[in-house]
């Protein structure tokens, strides 16, 4: 039934409840949709900046390596590049998934998305992250293998244990994504999407524990080198600073884990995807930063840099 206002009509003195509800309801939905679109565009932009920053640092590292060694890439560099390529894969999938959300937003208290293309896209993204996050770690471990001399047998045995654990964690990560949801096709089933690897909280916890534990081992390991190095006080402080760069990835990873748990694993994709790419980019950047000291030498050519390489400090 339509509301019929009197001739002397004042909207505020004689409101029509149905009309008001309709007008404000439609406006509220439009504002909400606009806000979601803005959040998505902001997330994509931030991720693009993070990815570009990681690329710049990676290119500088490769250039520095070429200037120092006169060859383009070694195995450690290749894995650093693989880490960035998988970050790019994540970014592409994240962008596609977020754009789908503009027309197919998450609904209900469980934030389900009734779109098969979206579910397939985030599944691929899951593999890009949970696999790609290990490549910068492998890059660091390969560098340690070239750094630690054979005379330091205990350190090399510990490094072997870390290498084995790192490989096992990578394999476990892939298997978790593959086997957590069976049949595998349920990953993109609208009816069973809450069982998918993307929406599985147990899978998230397993993946994070594997990821964080490997980061922690790789972060702690080089500090045991200090007693085997011939160092002046300022050199030791500088080296501790280099080793401490690993805290960046630990902090970003822990922040992502806390953010998901504070929201009861219902963090919006816009925020969650940004945190994820931040972790991947930070991992690549941290791997590359120590190699950029070559440029400091070039900018200060008159300074005596002899004995400033870690390789020169080993006893």
TrEMBL record:
Subcellular location: Membrane
Domain of life: Eukaryota
Cellular component GO terms held in the UniProt record: membrane
Keyword Lipoprotein recorded: no
Membrane topology type: Multi-pass membrane protein
Positions of the Rhodopsin domain: 60-297
TM helices/strands, residue ranges: 42-60, 81-102, 122-146, 158-180, 200-225, 237-258, 278-296
Primary location group: membrane
InterPro entries: Rhodopsin_dom_fungi, SAT4-like
Keywords (A to Z) from UniProt: Membrane, Transmembrane, Transmembrane helix
Family recorded in the similarity comment: Belongs to the SAT4 family.
Protein name: Rhodopsin domain-containing protein
Organism: Fusarium denticulatum
The organism's taxonomic lineage, starting at the top: Eukaryota, Fungi, Dikarya, Ascomycota, Pezizomycotina
